[in-house]
Design brief:
heterodimer; A: 337 residues; eight-stranded parallel beta barrel; 8 strands; globular; B: 168 residues; mainly beta; Immunoglobulin-like; five-stranded antiparallel β-sheet; four-stranded antiparallel β-sheet; 11 strands
Chain lengths: 337, 168
């Protein structure tokens, strides 16, 4: 449909699937209903029998995709460094588990396998002959808190340059390019425990200006806020440090647009991460207009997945409506920018 | 608006809340005696998945179980998944066994006579490493900095189950 190829990541339904609220069949049907051209599956989450699904399950999966007119696009896998106490995986383990996943991805009809940075560039290079043989694009996910300038992603970029192969690449997640907290960041707090009007204004200023944090704190006080508001601002609105291992740094007005543009050349799939889109199809906190403009300028022809993670901020919001809005927003921006 | 102190009491737990965790491993209504004809050799119950994406059983570092206030000896417990029945202390060695979200995971406790019909309080403490993290390296190289794997998460739950079946 439309101007850009949309993928629905089934992961977005993962929470309800795991609780038994949706069956796998319902998850696939919802992905179709949302307007997806293709789908992404998180293998250990929904592939029955992972990492060795049965022939029967593979046939069942292919039948469901065919019946619903969905293209299997991205098969997402991990480098599970926690398997052995006291050490990371070794290269043999990283190689063999990834080849195994690529084989299943191929059998199930996927064209892209998304792994994680812990695969390591030297191992990825050794996997290239398998990717070529299988016709699978093997990609590493770039997710916050990392950014294109993180040393290991510079190493990956160097590998992509050197090999110049359509079978190696990157899946950029917009969590690595966000400007500020989502509009729903305060929803978890009851209205009478903080000054939400003041904090909403501070949230907007944080994402759209470079006013230093200490000046924003002074503004909270001047506007009649108090220590509770300052505590919430520090923990929920201001960014985590760029060196933190988990969580999302907010880059304010300077997400790495150049890094995004540079890596786009090696990208066939991206994670359109988002936490909230309002009724006017704005997504405060992530500069989608700026990034869609770059995608258009560079002639991006791959998929973008609609990856909703807003339930962490407000579980009462309708996730299906959010995904549908994300698709409409991307179509609108692609036509306008 | 309420006093600063009152509001702090409401705000702090929200700020400290663990996001996206699955913290209720005891599966409601799953406690049963193991009855074979007129014999009963213990009881079983099921665990809910511990992660949004399934777990490798080797990441489970320990399971402590207390039933009706009494600690269950580890030698009497088996962790059962995908047709395997694994002693708790051996889970770490089963590095290629995956417990998917769709798989039933059962704790099997050996105890002659099982549990008496009626209510039983079950408390569980599971210590579990992350399946994956954002640190990386080749085998031991740099593992000392991989703090996300050093300290397992402590997942606690307790529930009152009712035994409907026969016990001795």
């Amino acid at each position: 449909m439309g101007n850009i190829k949309h993928s629905i990541t089934l992961y977005g339904f993962g929470h309800k699937y795991i609780q038994g609220i949706y069956t796998f069949e319902e998850v696939i049907q919802k992905a179709k209903k949302m307007g997806g051209d293709g789908i992404e599956i998180v293998s250990p989450q929904m592939v029955h029998g992972h990492p060795n699904p049965s022939d029967e399950w593979i046939e069942y999966f292919k039948g469901l995709c065919a019946d619903n007119g969905l293209v299997p696009v991205c098969y997402s896998v991990y480098i599970d460094s926690g398997k052995h106490k006291g050490r990371f995986l070794n290269e043999t383990e990283r190689m063999t588990c990834t080849i195994n996943e690529m084989e299943y991805a191929k059998r199930m009809g996927f064209s892209i396998v998304r792994s994680q940075d812990a695969l390591l560039p030297s191992t990825m290079e050794k996997l290239l002959p398998y990717a070529e043989e299988l016709g699978i694009h093997l990609a590493i996910e770039l997710h916050g808190p990392w950014s294109p300038s993180t040393p290991i992603f510079q190493e990956y970029a160097e590998l992509f340059e050197r090999k110049n192969s359509e079978y190696l690449g990157i899946v950029m997640d917009f969590s690595a390019f966000s400007s500020g907290a989502p509009a729903t960041v305060l929803n978890a707090f009851p209205d009478d425990v903080c000054h939400k009007d003041i904090l909403n204004e501070i949230n907007h200023l944080y994402a759209t200006t470079e006013i230093p944090e200490d000046e924003l704190i002074s503004m909270i006080k001047e506007k009649g806020g108090d220590e509770i508001d300052i505590m919430i601002a520090k923990k929920r609105i201001f960014s985590i440090g760029p060196d933190a291992k988990f969580g999302t740094p907010y880059y304010r007005t300077h997400p790495d647009y150049d890094g995004f543009r540079r890596l786009l050349k090696w990208s066939k799939y991206m994670h359109g991460k988002f936490w909230y889109i309002d009724e006017n199809l704005n997504c405060p906190g992530i500069d989608y207009p700026g990034f869609v403009k770059i995608m258009k300028e560079e002639g991006y022809a791959g998929y973008i997945a609609s990856e909703y993670e807003g339930e962490a901020f407000d579980a009462s919001i309708d996730d299906e409506e959010q995904i549908a809005r994300h698709i409409r927003m991307l179509e609108k921006l692609w036509a306008e920018v | 608006m309420k006093s600063i102190e009152e509001r702090k009491k409401i705000v702090m737990p929200i700020l400290e809340r663990r996001m996206g965790g699955f913290t209720k491993p005891l599966k409601a209504g799953s406690l049963k005696n193991k009855v074979f004809g007129n014999s009963c050799t213990g009881y079983t119950f099921q665990l809910n998945t511990l992660s949004y994406r399934g777990v490798w059983v080797s990441t489970i570092e320990d399971i402590e179980l207390t039933v009706d206030g009494e600690k269950v000896p580890k030698r009497d417990m088996l962790f059962c998944v995908r047709g395997l029945k694994i002693p708790i202390d051996n889970l770490g060695g089963h590095t290629e066994v995956f417990w998917g979200p769709e798989d039933d995971a059962i704790i099997n406790v050996n105890k002659v006579g099982g549990l008496k019909p009626g209510e039983h309080k079950v408390e569980i403490v599971i210590k579990k490493r992350s399946d994956f993290g954002h640190s990386y390296g080749e085998a031991e190289q740099g593992y000392e900095n991989a703090t996300e794997f050093h300290n397992p998460a402590i997942i606690k739950d307790e529930a009152v189950f009712t035994i409907e079946g026969e016990g001795k």
